[in-house]
Amino acid sequence: MGVHKAITQDTAISDASRLPAWPAAMSRQLALAFTGVSEAQMREWERTKTVRFVPRGPNGAKITERCQLEEALRGLFGDVSSDMDFGDGE
Prior knowledge:
By secondary structure, the protein is mainly alpha-helical. The protein has a domain at 24-81. It contains four helices and three strands. The protein has a three-stranded antiparallel beta sheet.
């Protein structure tokens, strides 16, 4: 098998268990890490009110809801299931 380890379902599950548990609300920096989008994309979402940061965090820090970020990501990629045309007529 060489240097590379075979990836099994058990490996994938154990790797997934190391992912962070994302909070229901997060700061801008955490929101950027959660979504993986650029600062410019986050500003665009704010401009269009897709994602809204409100001063409700510690010491008035601005936070946004994870569900807003998830919805923004869905809008960015669209409905992937309807874009799965492999030309097989199905």
